[in-house]
Amino acid sequence: MNGRVKLNTQRLKELRRNMGLSQEKLACACQDKALCVSIATLKRAECGLNVYHRTARELALFYQIPVYDLLNDTL
User: Which parts of the sequence belong to the HTH cro/C1-type domain (predicted)?
Assistant: First the structure.
C-alpha cells in the first residue's frame, strides 16, 4: 500500500456545500485551523483520486466526523 486512500467524492462535496464553502474557501478555512489541506488536494479528493491518510484525517477533523465517514465504500 502506498499510504493513500480514496475518499467518498459525493460525501466530500455534500459536506463542503452544506457549509456553503467553495473548494478555495475550504482550503483557507483548513489553513486557519492549522490543517494542511490545499486546494489542489481538495480537487484530487473530489475527483476521486487517492489522497494521503493524513489528508483524510485532517478533513475529518475539520468536519468533526470520524475518518471512516469519508472513506470510499468500494475500497
Answer: 12-70
Q: Is it the case that residue 16 has pLDDT exceeding 90? A: yes
pTM: 0.88
The CATH number of the domain where 61 resides is what? 1.10.260.40
**How distant, in Å, are the alpha carbons of 6, 24, 25, 26 from that of 20?**
23, 11, 9, 9
Q: Helix or strand or coil: residue 59?
A: helix
In the predicted model, what is the mean pLDDT of residues 49-73? Answer: 93
Contacts of 60 (CB under 8 A, 6+ apart): 66, 67, 69, 70
Cross-strand partners of 7? 71
- The answer to whether position 71 is within a domain reads no
